[in-house]
TrEMBL record, chain A:
Belongs to the bacterial solute-binding protein 1 family. The lineage of its organism: Bacteria, Bacillati, Actinomycetota, Actinomycetes, Micrococcales. It comes from the Bacteria. Keywords: Signal, Transport. Residues 1-29 form the signal peptide. This is ABC transporter substrate-binding protein.
TrEMBL record, chain B:
It comes from Microbacterium soli. It comes from the Bacteria. Residues 221-435 form the ABC transmembrane type-1 domain. Keywords: Cell membrane, Membrane, Transmembrane, Transmembrane helix, Transport. Belongs to the binding-protein-dependent transport system permease family. It is found in: Cell membrane. Coiled coil: none annotated. The keyword Transmembrane helix applies. This is ABC transmembrane type-1 domain-containing protein. Residues 1-23 are annotated as: Disordered.
Length: 443, 446
C-alpha cells in the first residue's frame, strides 16, 4: 500500500511530538500548577452543605475579594455533604476548604489528620471578632483548626402579632407565662395553639432535639448543658428528664398540638418546613423554630393569599423562647466552620478573608443570614427580625451555646437522639426513650 | 477502527504459523507466562497487605495528567494555545494511526510492539484521567478495549504465540484493573468487618455480634429476610397471574403496558409517589389511603409509623408495584413459548384449565420462573432507595442495604457497615450460586 509507506516516516515524528508535549507539560506544570508559581493557586475550591440560592449568595460574597486579589473562589454545595465529605477527605479528594456545619463533623474531619491547623493570622482575627466560646468550637485538644463563618439562632417562637392583638395577649417573659398564654389562646380559639413538625427525611427528629436543648439550657443552666454535651450528665439524669417533661407539657398534650395537622403523632409525619404555611395563614398560633424559618415565609401565603410580612406588627414575628425567670438570656444556635486542607498562600488568603468582618458584612448584606462576628454591622441584615437576632448574638451578656446534638458523638447527636424523639412523640415512655438515647453512646 | 484493521489484514502476507512446532518458542512462552503471573500475584498481595485507607498519593504516577496539561495551556497566550492544540491533536491522531498501521503485521517485533502498547495505553490513560473520581473504572474500560483490539490484531496476524497465551497476555492489564477495582475492595471490606469503627483496632467478631444483638442490626436482618421472601413471591405470583389472564386477550398490549409502566419509574420516584398515597393528616386528606379510611368513618392512620411490620408491608407494596411488571413481561413471553401441541394434548386428556396451568404451563416456564424469582430476590435484598426515601429506616423498617450506608455515612462506623455488607453478601451468595447452577444445568440438557 502506498499510504503505509508515508505513515512509516510520519510515525517516529508523531511519537517525538507527543513525547515533547508530555515533557513540556510536566516541566511547566511542576511548580505549583500554574501562574508563575509564587502566588499559589488561582482558584480555590470550597465545598459545603449549603445549596440553592444561599450557595449563589455565598459565591457572590467573594466578588469584591476576587477583584482585590485576583483569586477566584469556587463554592460548590452538596446536599449530602455531611455523608460524603469524610469519605472524600480520607480518599484523598479533599477540597481546598470545607464549610463544616457541625463541630462534631469537624472533629471527625480533624481526626482524619487532613485538616490543617488554622494560620496564626486567622487565629488572631477570630480572637478579635468572635467570643471565646465560638473559637472554642473550632478547637480540639488545644489546637485551633477552624474559624466560624455564619450563624443562626435557635429557640424562637413564631407567632402572629395581629392575632395576638386581637386576643389581647403579649409575648411571654417566663416559661409559666408561656403556658398561661397557651391556655388563653386555646380558650379564645378553641383550637390547639401549637404546631410542630419533626419530619426531615433521613434527619427526622432534629426539630425536637432543639426543643430539649433549649429547655436544658434554660432550666439547668449553661454548666449543666456543657456537662451534658461532654457526656458527664447522662440522658437518664433528672436534669434531662425535667427538660423532656417540660417539652412534653406542650408537645405531648393533645389539647395544645398539632394545630391543623392531626393529633400528637402527626408531629412525626409533618415536614418541619410545612409548619410555616400554617403559621402564616393563621391556623397555627405558635411554633418553635430557629431563625432560618423567616426564609420559609417567602414561599407561603397569609389568609388573604399574599406573601406574609415578617415584622413586629405584621403577619408573623417571633420571640425568643422565654427562660424560667424573667430576664434570663440563654440561647442556643448553630453555625458553620471553615476548615482548610492545604496551606497554599491563596487558601490562607481566603481563610483570612472569611474570618474578617468584611466577609460577614458582604454575606449578611445579600440577605437571609446573620453572623456572630462582633465587628460585623447588624444593620446590614436583610430584615428587622434578622437585625435583632444578630444583635442578640453579638451581645456580650447573651449566654450562647452551640446546638448540643451537633456537638455530641454522631451516634447520639444525629442517631439515637433524633430517633428517640420520634419514639417519644409516638408514645414511648420518657424513661424508656431516655435510656434508649443514652444507649447510643455504646454504638 | 476495526474495519480498518480487517482491510489491512486482507492485504497482508499469507499465514505461516511456526509456533507449536518450535520448542524454543514454547520455552519463551512458558517463561513469559510465569513471570507475568508472578507479577500479577505480587501486585495483588501488595495491595491486600498494605493498609487500606493510606495516602492515595502513593499510587499517583507523577504530575502528568490531562488536567495539569490543560491548566498549563490555559495560562499561555491565546495565540500560542492554537498551535499547541493543533500539535497535540495531530500527535494523538498519529499515535492512533501508528497503532492501526502496525497492529496487524506479522512478526515477533510487531508482537512485542503490540504487547507494549497494550500495557502502555491503560497506564497513560490512568495518568491522564487521574484527577477525576472513578478514573479506575474508565481505565478498566480502556484497558479492556485496547487489550481486546490488540489481541484481535495479533490473532489476525497469525504470527503470535498461540491463542490462549495471546488472550491472557493482552487482557492482563484489564484483569489487573478489575482486581484493583472490584475484588480488592470486596476482600478489604471483609477484613474491615473485624476492626473497630475507624478501622484501627482488631475487635474480632464484635461487629457481627452487634449486627445480631443491637435492635437496629437485628431489625435490618429480619426485614431483609422478609423482603427477600415476600417481595419475589408476591411479584411473581401477581405477574404470573396477570400474564396468564391476559394471554391472547383482546387489547393485550395495552393491558401489558399498564402494568409494565411502574418498572420504568425509579425506586426514589416510586417512594415519593407512594409517600403521598400514605400521607397522614387530620381534616382534609391528601393521601388516597387515608381518604378511603376517613370516607368510611375511620380515623386516619399514620401508615409508615405503624409497628411492627405493618410499615414494612407498606414499603413492600411499593416494591412489588414496581416489580410485578418486570415479572409479567418475562413470564408472558415464556408462556407464549410453551408448545401449543402440549396444551392440546392435555386438553384431549380431559384436564381442566387449572390442571393444564399447573402441569403444562408451569413446568414449561420453569427456567424463566427461577430467573425472575432469583433476580427479584437479589434486588429486594439490595433495596435501599425505597426505605431511605419513605421512612429513613425509622420505626423498625431498616434493611441491610440501607443500614450499611447509614452506619458508614452518618456515624462513620466502618466496622458496623462492613459487617452488614458481609452479612448481605452471605444472603445474596446462595441465590447467585443457585442461579448459576440452574443455568448450567439447562445448558447440559440442551
Amino acid at each position: 500500500m502506498a499510504l503505509s509507506q508515508r505513515y512509516r516516516l510520519l510515525a517516529p515524528l508523531a511519537l517525538v511530538g507527543a513525547a515533547a508535549i508530555a515533557l513540556t507539560g510536566c516541566a511547566e506544570a511542576a511548580p505549583g500548577g500554574g501562574d508563575g508559581g509564587s502566588d499559589g493557586k488561582s482558584t480555590i475550591r470550597i465545598a459545603g452543605g449549603i445549596t440553592g440560592g444561599e450557595a449563589d449568595a455565598l459565591n457572590e460574597s467573594f466578588a469584591q475579594f476576587t477583584k482585590d486579589t485576583g483569586i477566584e473562589v469556587e463554592y460548590i454545595g452538596d446536599k449530602s455533604f455531611e455523608g460524603n465529605i469524610v469519605t472524600k477527605v480520607t480518599g484523598g479528594d479533599a477540597p481546598d476548604i470545607a464549610i463544616v456545619p457541625q463541630p462534631g463533623l469537624l472533629k471527625t474531619l480533624v481526626d482524619t489528620g487532613k485538616v490543617l491547623e488554622a494560620p496564626e493570622s486567622v487565629s488572631k482575627a477570630v480572637d478579635e471578632n468572635w467570643s471565646a466560646d465560638w473559637k472554642n468550637y473550632g478547637t480540639f485538644d488545644g489546637t485551633f483548626y477552624a474559624a466560624p463563618m455564619l450563624a443562626n439562632l435557635k429557640g424562637y417562637v413564631w407567632y402572629s402579632p395581629a392575632s395576638f392583638e386581637e386576643w389581647g395577649v403579649e409575648a411571654p417573659k417566663t416559661w409559666d407565662e408561656l403556658i398561661t398564654l397557651t391556655d388563653t389562646i386555646r380558650e379564645k380559639t378553641g383550637n390547639a395553639p401549637w404546631c410542630a413538625g419533626f419530619a426531615s427525611d433521613a434527619a427526622s427528629g432534629w426539630p425536637g432535639t432543639d426543643w430539649i436543648e433549649d429547655l436544658v439550657l434554660r432550666q439547668s443552666g449553661a454548666d449543666t448543658y456543657d456537662k451534658w454535651v461532654a457526656g458527664d450528665v447522662k440522658f437518664t439524669d433528672p436534669e434531662i428528664k425535667e427538660a423532656f417533661d417540660a417539652v412534653g407539657e406542650i408537645l405531648l398534650n393533645p389539647d395544645y398540638v398539632n394545630a391543623g395537622f392531626g393529633d400528637v403523632k402527626s408531629i412525626n409525619s409533618t415536614a418541619f418546613g410545612d409548619v410555616a404555611a400554617k403559621v402564616a395563614d393563621g391556623s397555627c398560633a405558635l411554633t418553635h423554630q430557629a431563625s432560618f424559618l423567616s426564609a420559609n415565609f417567602l414561599d407561603v401565603t397569609n389568609a388573604d393569599g399574599e406573601t406574609p410580612t415578617v415584622a413586629p406588627d405584621g403577619d408573623v414575628y417571633a420571640f425568643l423562647l422565654p427562660g424560667i425567670n424573667e430576664g434570663d438570656l440563654n440561647v442556643e444556635g448553630g453555625g458553620e466552620f471553615v476548615a482548610a486542607f492545604n496551606d497554599d498562600p491563596s487558601t490562607v488568603k481566603v481563610l483570612e478573608f472569611m474570618a474578617s468582618p468584611e466577609f460577614a458584612d458582604a454575606r449578611v448584606k445579600l440577605g437571609g443570614v446573620i453572623s456572630a462576628n462582633k465587628n460585623a454591622d447588624p444593620s446590614l441584615a436583610s430584615s428587622e427580625f434578622l437585625q435583632e437576632a444578630m444583635k442578640t448574638l453579638q451581645d456580650d451578656s447573651t449566654v450562647f451555646r452551640f446546638d448540643a446534638s451537633d456537638l455530641m458523638p454522631s451516634t447520639v447527636g444525629s442517631g439515637s437522639f433524633w430517633k428517640g424523639l420520634i419514639d417519644w412523640v409516638d408514645g414511648k415512655s420518657t424513661d424508656e426513650v431516655l435510656s434508649d438515647i443514652q444507649a447510643g453512646y455504646e454504638n | 477502527m476495526s474495519q480498518v484493521i480487517i482491510d489491512e489484514t486482507e492485504t497482508s502476507e499469507p499465514p505461516q504459523t511456526t509456533h507449536g512446532a518450535d520448542p524454543k518458542g514454547r520455552a519463551i512462552t512458558r517463561t513469559l507466562v510465569v513471570v507475568g503471573f508472578a507479577l500479577i500475584a505480587a501486585l495483588f498481595f501488595l495491595l491486600i497487605f498494605s493498609a487500606p485507607a493510606e495516602d492515595p498519593a502513593r499510587i499517583a504516577l507523577g504530575p502528568v495528567s490531562l488536567n495539569t496539561f490543560f491548566m498549563w495551556l490555559g495560562d499561555l497566550h491565546p495565540l500560542i494555545q492554537i498551535p499547541i492544540i493543533l500539535i497535540a491533536f495531530g500527535a494523538v491522531v498519529a499515535a492512533i494511526l501508528v497503532l492501526i498501521e502496525y497492529a496487524p503485521r506479522p512478526g515477533r517485533g510487531y508482537f512485542i510492539l503490540r504487547l507494549v502498547a497494550c500495557l502502555a495505553v491503560p497506564v497513560l490513560a490512568f495518568m491522564m484521567l487521574r484527577p477525576y473520581s472513578n478514573a479506575v473504572l474508565y481505565v478498566v474500560g480502556i484497558a479492556l478495549l485496547s487489550g481486546a483490539l490488540l489481541f484481535f490484531a495479533d490473532y489476525r496476524s497469525r504470527q503470535g504465540a498461540g491463542y490462549l497465551f495471546q488472550l491472557i497476555l493482552f487482557l492482563a492489564p484489564a484483569a489487573i484493573m478489575l482486581l484493583i477495582g472490584l475484588i480488592y475492595p470486596a476482600i478489604a471490606t471483609f477484613f474491615k468487618s473485624f476492626f473497630d469503627k475507624t478501622g484501627t483496632d482488631f475487635v474480632g467478631l464484635e461487629n457481627y455480634i452487634w449486627v445480631f444483638t443491637n435492635p437496629v442490626g437485628t431489625w435490618s436482618v429480619i426485614n431483609t429476610l422478609i423482603w427477600a421472601l415476600v417481595a419475589p413471591t408476591l411479584s411473581v405470583a401477581f405477574g404470573l397471574a396477570y400474564a396468564v389472564f391476559i394471554d391472547r386477550a383482546r387489547g393485550e398490549k395495552v393491558l401489558k403496558v399498564l402494568v409494565f409502566m411502574p418498572v420504568a419509574i425509579s425506586f426514589v420516584g416510586a417512594g415519593i409517589i407512594w409517600k403521598f398515597m400514605y400521607d397522614y393528616r387530620q381534616g382534609e386528606q391528601l393521601g388516597l389511603l387515608n381518604a378511603i379510611v376517613t370516607l368510611f368513618g375511620g380515623d386516619p392512620v399514620s401508615w409508615l409509623a405503624v409497628k411492627p411490620l405493618v410499615n414494612t408491608v407498606m414499603l413492600l407494596i411499593v416494591f412489588i408495584w414496581t416489580q410485578t411488571g418486570f415479572a409479567m413481561v418475562i413470564l408472558s413471553a415464556s408462556i407464549k413459548a410453551v408448545p401449543v401441541e402440549q396444551m392440546e394434548a392435555a386438553e384431549l386428556d380431559g384436564t381442566n384449565a387449572w390442571q393444564r396451568f399447573w402441569n403444562v404451563t408451569v413446568p414449561g416456564i420453569r427456567s424463566s420462573l427461577i430467573v425472575v424469582l432469583t433476580t427479584i430476590a437479589i434486588m429486594s435484598l439490595k433495596v435501599y432507595d425505597i426505605v431511605a426515601v419513605m421512612t429513613g429506616g425509622r420505626d423498625d423498617t431498616t434493611v441491610l442495604g440501607f443500614e450499611m450506608v447509614n452506619q458508614q455515612q452518618r456515624f462513620q462506623s466502618y466496622g458496623h457497615s462492613s459487617a452488614l455488607a458481609v452479612v448481605l453478601f452471605l444472603f445474596v451468595l446462595p441465590l447467585i450460586i443457585y442461579n448459576a447452577r440452574s443455568l448450567s444445568k439447562q445448558r447440559e440438557i440442551r
